[in-house]
From TrEMBL:
Residues 1-20 form the signal peptide. The keyword Lipoprotein applies. This is SusD/RagB family nutrient-binding outer membrane lipoprotein. It comes from the Bacteria. Keywords: Lipoprotein, Signal. InterPro entries: SusD-like_2, TPR-like_helical_dom_sf.
Length: 515
């Protein structure tokens, strides 16, 4: 693993613009760190995290986009030659190589942690540790065993050993505990709240985000035999700590004070699948299409309020009345695309990414890292599986609030969520649902649509829910369960990659993927 250069975001970051890395790469030696203010590095690191996860017009398929496909939420529009790498699962260790970008980003956060005290910016240590934990969890969820204890040491360790993925998960709980302690001890200096383009210096919200990540890490392991006592103990510690969880809002990078209507400075989602800085529709707007399975499932449950926020009706957005569809927004005008189909579903005849994600002119929405709805479903599963944990509400209450928060973040009228109470609709009405954990998983899958594709795919691997149709391009039942280690790591750290054994992306499951 090589240590790449830091990208100093300095003045432009604080006023809300974004720059390409090549303009800011100041190192001549990639194994020597530059001198920079941790606050500048932290701001750019947050922006880089969003770009690495979500992408923009200059990137290829990033983890969130791939996750939407492999979670069965999005397919490919038929205006393009079918992408067999994604839809026929014809990929190698040269594809989906998110590894280097993630470790580069982790170096940024480690720089902040290492240099915050010396620069009298201690308030950045806690947030940097939270982000470090988030990235490491995502790396585990993509690759399994990864460098952790030997990583981020620059020239001192050029070939870091790999740590067991379960041990990394446990270490992340400890790291988040440290982050919360740092947050409580070091409130933001008012002059530097602008460097925090997520929570504007709110240490309370950072602590809530840390607890929400801890809950995700714990619930990810909930199907593993023998982990119940550990999980319950750690959940009770979260409750005792007292900061709570993210509620009623999203964890989002940037927003109106950061993104600009300038090329290269738009929200990445808008930039990739929506419009350019001049309002011209991107060619890729016709590429991702909500799946037939998703659209038909929502229709079958009468869940049309959310459907109309997840997707535009056939023919897409009305550019003269942004946020509305060209066609009348009735269920009959919403046609999903079968997963992996290569013909018969042209853009004019199918639904496209909806107003919850793209509205012409709304280039400065935050780039979402985690939703309040996801957190509520984590709590619902925790209470349903472990009824004696000290979480104060019932599984049903968390479940119903998860649906409410899903409606809210999509921009649907939240009153529509109440209609499912007592409706007798399977997996919507908690009391009437045959399997409560299945109901939680399926509602979580819906709620993650358009916001957290990597998480949706990860949860699908963990729960096998919902039961998705196989890609039209694939003759058997095999699906990817992980990525290969990238060829870049094999080239620079080959002995340690080889030590992980033979990796089969279709059968070498991660430790939390029990079936």
């Amino acid at each position: 693993m090589k240590l790449k250069s830091f990208f100093i975001f300095a003045f432009v970051a604080l006023v809300g613009s974004a720059c390409k890395e090549s303009f800011l790469d100041i190192n001549s030696n990639p194994n020597v760190l530059p001198t920079a203010s941790p606050s500048f590095v932290f701001t750019n690191a947050l922006n880089t995290t969003a770009t690495n996860l979500i992408g923009n017009s200059a990137t290829g398929t990033q983890p969130n986009e791939l996750g939407y496909y492999w979670a069965g939420q999005w397919s490919q529009g038929n205006g393009y030659i079918i992408n067999t790498t994604i839809f026929a699962y014809n990929f190698t260790n040269g594809d989906f190589t998110y590894w280097d970008a993630y470790y580069d980003n982790l170096e940024d956060y480690q720089f902040v942690i290492n240099n915050a005290d010396a620069n009298n910016q201690k308030y950045l240590k806690g947030p940097a540790k939270v982000m470090k934990a988030m990235l490491y969890q995502q790396l585990v969820d993509m690759y399994g065993n990864i460098p952790y204890t030997d990583a981020l040491k620059g020239g001192a360790v050029l070939a870091p050993k790999f740590d067991d993925q379960k041990a990394v998960y446990e270490s992340l709980i400890t790291l988040l505990d440290e982050a919360i302690a740092d947050l409580k001890a070091n409130p933001f200096a008012s002059a530097f709240t602008g460097s925090d383009i997520i929570f504007k210096g709110s240490v309370t919200k950072w602590a809530q985000f840390a607890n929400s990540l801890k809950m995700k890490i714990l619930i990810r392991q909930s199907r593993i035999t023998g982990r119940e006592t550990y999980i319950k103990t750690e959940i009770n510690k979260i409750v005792t700590e007292g900061s709570g969880f993210i509620t009623g809002e999203e964890v989002g990078v940037g927003g109106p004070s950061f993104y600009l209507a300038t090329a290269g400075k738009l929200n990445g989602v808008y930039d990739r699948w929506g419009y350019d800085a001049n309002g011209a529709k991107r060619a890729l707007n016709n590429f991702p299409r909500p799946t037939q399975f998703l659209i038909n499932s929502l229709k079958a449950a009468g869940d049309t309020l959310r459907m109309k926020r997840i997707a535009y009706a056939n023919s897409g957005e009305n550019g003269t009345v942004p946020g509305t569809s060209i066609l009348k927004e009735v269920a009959a005008n919403y046609t999903g695309t079968p997963f992996g189909v290569s013909s018969g579903y042209l853009p004019a005849n199918t639904t496209s990414l909806g107003p919850s994600l793209i509205v012409k002119g709304e280039y400065n929405r935050p780039a979402i890292l985690m939703t309040a709805s996801e957190v509520q479903f984590l709590l619902a599963e925790a209470k349903q599986r472990f009824s004696d944990v000290t979480l104060p509400l019932t599984a049903k209450a968390y479940f119903e609030e998860g649906i409410v928060q899903s409606f809210r973040v999509l921009g649907a009228n939240v009153a529509g969520a109440a209609a499912y109470k007592g409706s007798k609709i399977e997996n919507y009405d908690f009391d009437a649902s045959t399997n409560k954990l299945t109901a939680i998983a399926i509602q979580k899958w819906i709620a993650l649509t358009n916001f957290s594709g990597l998480e949706a795919w990860t949860e699908y691997r963990r729960t096998n829910l919902p039961v998705l149709p196989q890609s039209v391009q694939v003759a058997d039942n095999k699906r990817p369960v992980r990525f290969y280690y990238p060829n870049t790591e094999s080239g620079s750290n080959g002995a340690n990659v080889t030590a992980q054994g033979t990796i089969d992306a279709f059968s070498t499951r991660l430790f939390w993927d029990v079936d």
